[in-house]
Amino acid sequence: MKTTTKSIYLFEEGNAGMKDLLGGKGANLAEMTRLGFPVPPGFTITTEMCNEYSKSGEKMPVGLEDEIRNAMKHLEEEMGKKFGDPANPLLVSVRSGAKFSMPGMMDTILNLGLNSKTVEGLAKRTNNPRFAYDAYRRFIQMFSDVVLGLEKKNFEEMMSEKKKNTGAKIDSELSADSLKDLISEYKAYVKDHTGEEFPEDVYVQLFKSVEAVFKSWNNPRAIVYRKKEHIPDDLGTAVNVQSMVFGNTGEKSGTGVAFTRNASTGENVLTGDFLFNAQGEDVVAGIRTPLELSALKDAAPEIYNQLQDIANKLERHYKDLQDMEFTVEEGKLYMLQTRNAKRTAQAAIKAATDMVDESLIDTETAVMRVTPAQIDQLLHPYYKPEDKDKAIADGRLLAKGIPASPGAAAGTVVFDSDEAVRLKEEGKDLVLVRPETTPDDAQGMLASKGILTSTGGPTSHAALVARGWGIPCVVGCEALYIDPEKKIFKAGDRTFKEGDSISIDGSTGEVIEGLVPLVYPTDMPKEAQRILGWADKIRKLGVYTNADNPRDAARARALGAHGIGLCRTEHMFMERERLPIVQQMILSAGDAEGGKRAVERIRETLAAAKEAQKAGIQARLEDAEKKLEKPWKEYRETLDKLLPFQREDFRGILKAMEGLWVIIRLLDPPLHEFLPSYEDLLVEVTKLEITGENPKLLKEKEELLEKVKALKEFNPMLGLRVCRLGIVYPEIYRMQVRAIFEAACDLKKDGVDVKPEVMIPGVGTENEMKFTREMVDSVAKKVMEEKGIQVVYKVGTMVELPRACTVAGDLAKFAQFFSFGTNDLTQTTFGYSRDDASGSFIPVYLEKGILQQEPFQVLDRVGVGRLMKMAVKEGRATDPKLEVGICGEHGGEPSSVEFCHHLGLNYVSCSPYRVPIARLAAAQAVVREKSDYSNK
Amino acid sequence: MKTTTKSIYLFEEGNAGMKDLLGGKGANLAEMTRLGFPVPPGFTITTEMCNEYSKSGEKMPVGLEDEIRNAMKHLEEEMGKKFGDPANPLLVSVRSGAKFSMPGMMDTILNLGLNSKTVEGLAKRTNNPRFAYDAYRRFIQMFSDVVLGLEKKNFEEMMSEKKKNTGAKIDSELSADSLKDLISEYKAYVKDHTGEEFPEDVYVQLFKSVEAVFKSWNNPRAIVYRKKEHIPDDLGTAVNVQSMVFGNTGEKSGTGVAFTRNASTGENVLTGDFLFNAQGEDVVAGIRTPLELSALKDAAPEIYNQLQDIANKLERHYKDLQDMEFTVEEGKLYMLQTRNAKRTAQAAIKAATDMVDESLIDTETAVMRVTPAQIDQLLHPYYKPEDKDKAIADGRLLAKGIPASPGAAAGTVVFDSDEAVRLKEEGKDLVLVRPETTPDDAQGMLASKGILTSTGGPTSHAALVARGWGIPCVVGCEALYIDPEKKIFKAGDRTFKEGDSISIDGSTGEVIEGLVPLVYPTDMPKEAQRILGWADKIRKLGVYTNADNPRDAARARALGAHGIGLCRTEHMFMERERLPIVQQMILSAGDAEGGKRAVERIRETLAAAKEAQKAGIQARLEDAEKKLEKPWKEYRETLDKLLPFQREDFRGILKAMEGLWVIIRLLDPPLHEFLPSYEDLLVEVTKLEITGENPKLLKEKEELLEKVKALKEFNPMLGLRVCRLGIVYPEIYRMQVRAIFEAACDLKKDGVDVKPEVMIPGVGTENEMKFTREMVDSVAKKVMEEKGIQVVYKVGTMVELPRACTVAGDLAKFAQFFSFGTNDLTQTTFGYSRDDASGSFIPVYLEKGILQQEPFQVLDRVGVGRLMKMAVKEGRATDPKLEVGICGEHGGEPSSVEFCHHLGLNYVSCSPYRVPIARLAAAQAVVREKSDYSNK
């Protein structure tokens, strides 16, 4: 940050571009002054002074007090009043104002400049002693609180006491004399508790207040907030000193806030609140109910029209919806603040499209006016705020977990996935409640409207699957004790059972007792579609979707996906009717493929053997061949049974995505994921052993246990999975490739334009890619010959291992596309297991500031990103046309999408419900990149 | 490879440097000819001709036959005989000869040039018809076998039949006439089985033989061998055609092999075998027992002296121990081959040091003459070959597993680690037999002389620990069925039980019934120490050791280690008396550290809270503080109990390594490794539940089960371990750091020169390094202040995650050294779990040629190496003095050591028994690098 020599800027010297130095509030006050709007004169002490103050161990910067005195002189001249002058006192407000709006910092001191003498002068000049004493009372109260650190509530108690003693019901019934008494009591209290008189010297008042603002930059609440929001600690706050205007001098005065358009709906109508005869804090305090702005229209049409005129001008100037504060003093309007308004998703979208139609902004700007999170909100059911507030007010909030998949869901509690499938068929809306979910729960999750778990983080199985399928989900709700065996969950001392109703909000993490009425969004609103349409024209990244079935594919296509970037095949294996076949296949696979390799080895040995050894080797070969017969038969039979299922799977998807590329990933997870749980079997066998009831079943289970144990791995994530499966068990991959090409050929024969791409997961060496590519090509060729149809296709790989990145140049010799699997790449680059880390040390790391972001949510640009960059560069060096995309969860996360744009990827692929988010984020990345350049 | 136009080289045209073109045998024959030794004239057809032959689909290269005819003319002139001339026939031998000696290729055809006419000429000229017919008989047999592909045994049967019919007991009793008959039968057999006459045309004989050599390059046995030995397929073989000399013309003839020095002991004495009146194949066939070479000394001193003279000259010329073949024909000596001799470890070392003393070679050459594997052999007990051979001949070989840690062990079978500890105390030599080992077995392994497992590969737990401790080990012995419950193992249909004796050979993988007598190497032989001393002067890499206790440290120091590169602290936690304390500590750690974080969080919230909320937060704080009390007390108490143990651990190690750096790694493994097995507990609880016998125990076990379950991870390798432990549970690391510095200060007070280095495992982000560095520095400072002693120390990190490599430049801001943990780095870079991959898909990958090397044994230079290079470069860019080493298993593997040299590391660290290997390998890397440069 450059250092300037100027420590104070008069409002007329600054402008809106100086937020670093003047803070947001100061810069906008300067801008409004510059534009000729009625802003009470004032000046801003720069953020650099605050930093100097902090760095020097809380000493006022040398010369700053003199500068303040000079600036005050200037104010005195402009206002024709004098600071501390009993005859015609100048009063000022002191407000903090950092670059970003920050709760926790000192807010406001009003009426500064009052003391026992000037209060009398004010009383005389306004001819309103009650007003003057009330102003002084307020000032003492605020100053004591924020500068002297005395508790506000003690002053409030003194005032209540006074009202009681004088029979006043509300503040304004206190007479001037009572207020005078109260002021004496306040002062005595200050003397008592600080040992010093309340300051009479107005400059002491001012300097202490400025110091208090400086200090508040480092108060705990501000520090915590900055840490949470990743705001740097060295920004500092500016201090705004502004001459007072009074909205509480009578019924021709007042104060209010106004929005240039409706911030809830986006409608192009000036809206806001107003209070007659009130100072700003009265509006905020909420003691009196403010009037709608239309009341001002009737009561003071001139003022209203002036405000409307200013609003129009401000909006045209800032080209954005403004949130303004204003005060009317004796019929004269003053502007105290303007800033870009916070708004709802609906309002953001409507205002942005309206402004384009009004030619106020261009489409690029409109695209930047809507956040990806706002687009996300539009796609999920939600609760009307009033309904949810009511439920919470009624004490129905049970707990708050981690919001893991947005949207609201209300339904019947179910603890078991099979039960969920059954109840779904009865037409029930369900919320699946589990300690955690596993792949076994897939069908049950799909059958539910919402998912609630007590463990796991935002990247737990439940969260990932729920987001993928767009099911609202709350995870890690540790306050709940969930017992799926007993089919109950406990919240505190209350117990809920299957069949009870609950509501969850996956956008906020709330879990509420009973049913809160849901509002279902219909289609994506027309205005949002316009925004996304503009985004599509701007963005350079393609947007694909991750979809495993025709329903998801169709949905994603409707939401704007231009292809499937990841069609997983494992969920297909999990389906109810297939799982037993899959299990049988897996149990024979090891003996079959292992036996086949043994036979090949012996054949090789036989060919190389010396004469004398041949007979013995021949005998071994025959043994091995005989041993292979049974498992091979079983293996082939089960694969042959699975083939038509898979063919139908692929047929459906390819058809749904007609004309678009569909990237199908061959089987990825470790095989034991398809088998019964080892631990369950262990318990079962132990029980059967002890009871001795069913020796036949015991034997069966023991055998199964042995086989499951053989497939068990210490670290399944690093075990026999991904393409290793297809190399150790090539028949499984061959069956899948055959199914893909049979489906593609059949469809093409029917005139459907199919574009299959086969993706090999987890390749780490050139030879893996070469081996699998050759395997795919040979099966594809065979099927196409059988069918007499040629289909255009590609073979590529998922780049999800660090080693793949280091040999990307070699992989690109055989891979026609790369798709970054950043979930796994993050796991191996960091050495973090997603399943273990998210609920264990990552939260601690985030808390301690070791990590700034959860790397499974926001792509780690430094480490993972560097490997990706290497892969893109070297892959394209081998094959300049290499298509590169991403299909990890990050593909739908805005900051990660932006990074992918910078990496020069061809596309991002994400779950259907995140497609619109990715479309928007991709466009915003382009615009931001341009403006980054133009700023240089 | 450059192409020459010359397809044939006469022996006098070549030299020893032309092995690529002439093969090893041809080049050495040319060299001997060039030097003037008595070599029967001949020529070599180049390897390029072989490649041309293969590439053209097995067609003789155009013009080659004419070239051969020309070369034969040359031979005829030199020999004064004519090829195919019945009056004075020239006979030749045809031999293959590739660059590397290769079994499986066509070996030799002798006596080529004989047919029905020349045989008569030979008979006449030698005046020895029996000799001539026997030569012809042998030729037909060899030619039929290797050129015509007819089975040898059929010819042998015909000969046996002939002997039977004629009453001859041995071959030489067959008369000339009988041999003549036999030749007719041979020819008839050939005609019968090939449809063609046995070739009379001597050039047809020659060309077919040359083709047969060419073809043999691609025979299955040769292909399999090349694949196994990583010999490129495009080298090709040369063909040597040499005029015949005969060792079987009578008692003044003979044939033999000789070594310039004793190849078993290295003694500088000409040794070898000799047979009178014999052809080469008779020596090889082993039908007659050859005489020692000294017999020749007595029988034909002139020949012997000539041989001795040639041996001396050859050794001086080649400057290496030679293995020679020679023939004596009628009192004249001919040299048929010389090559560098294969030799035992002892011989290699003795010959190398002797040759230095004889000024034959320099020390650098001597260092290159010993292989790291030979040095390794010297350090382990072994079986005398004759003892082992006898045991195997007696049928006592039970199975063969994977040799995992070299050396032999013989002892009593034990199945249980606790039992091993007990039996050890009784003074028994034990072999621990387990399906696999886990960290729980550490004490039992340490108590055993040998370890045998039925599962796992060369990097399984058993293998790693065994190598680390220098305990002979055989793993993955799948032929054995081991049942530790029943305390038996089965080999085939035989069952062995606890107390039975077995012998294992960790260098070969053999498992033998009963006790084979062991030979214990005493110290490293003096000659080996000289070699290693020379190596030390050459090498640039430092050699450190991985040692966890003073005994290992002292041993490694004696073997030449110059520091400890990795002192693991987890084995210390496993020790019998500490484990219960460690377990108690772990069971309280989560509640204690988690509770402490909660308290801190609430305190922060309280500080940042608004007035109105403070009371409620204060109450929550008090609750949290109260809840923390008990676990914190337990946690602190257990840590305080562990502190003195750890202090003693470090005291011992630091003292043993006085004056040298000792790198101590803070706790690394996931905590559940210290707890009882989840599955065992599950079974126990299930049993207790069913029997209902002991409700109190059930409750206890259930609680333990819950806690163990909470610490259970899906992928422990990627879970809460390494520095994550120290950040989530900082008190554990603080205790360890305190113990290190208390020990160091106490020792220094006693005048011991201590040099501790603290190593943080598994750092992946700059903040982890910063956090832990600050933690170590602050505890170190505190302890040193308390003790009033300053100790020089360093803090560094183990670079074992891909992300660490990508941010090495940032890590080096806080790390004073890097040590590559290539075991883990290989795991995460490849995405292979060592435990799962080595016994599962890696063997398949090696078999299918997907991987060329097992990456946990030989460092992967392409992927892992690239990340290491990045880390070295960027770490040193930040801190040019950054010390970089390696402490993974690769640190003791020669090819990996060489790579580390190329990377410019400062040191390698390996298990004590591999220190001499690393010293040698590091020196060899330097020499090889120099010669690589000089070749350019």
Determine the oligomeric state from the structure.
homodimer
How would you sum up the major sheet of chain A? 8 strands, mixed
- The helix-and-strand class of chain A reads alpha/beta
Number of helices of chain A: 37
The residue ranges of chain A in which pLDDT falls below 50 over 5 or more consecutive positions are: none
Global mean pLDDT of chain A:
91
CA radius of gyration of chain A: 35 Å
Instruction: Show the largest interface.
Output: A-B, 79 and 76 residues
> DSSP strand (E) fraction of chain A?
15-25%
Helix content of chain A: 40-55%
Distance between the termini of chain A: 15 Å
Shape descriptor of chain A: elongated
Number of strands of chain A: 31
Q: Strands of the largest sheet of chain A, in order across it?
A: 12-22-21-14-15-16-17-13
What key phrases describe this protein's structure?
homodimer; 936 residues; alpha/beta; eight-stranded mixed beta sheet; eight-stranded parallel beta barrel
Q: What does this entry look like structurally?
A:
- The structure is a homodimer of 936-residue chains.
- Chain A has 37 helices and 31 strands.
- In chain A, helix 6 (152-166) runs antiparallel to helix 7.
- The two termini of chain A are 15 Å apart.
- With 936 residues, chain A is α/β, with parallel strands linked by helices.
- Chain A is 50% helix and 16% strand.
- At the A-B interface, helix 9, helix 23, helix 25, helix 27 and helix 29 of A face helix 9, helix 23, helix 25, helix 27 and helix 29 of B.
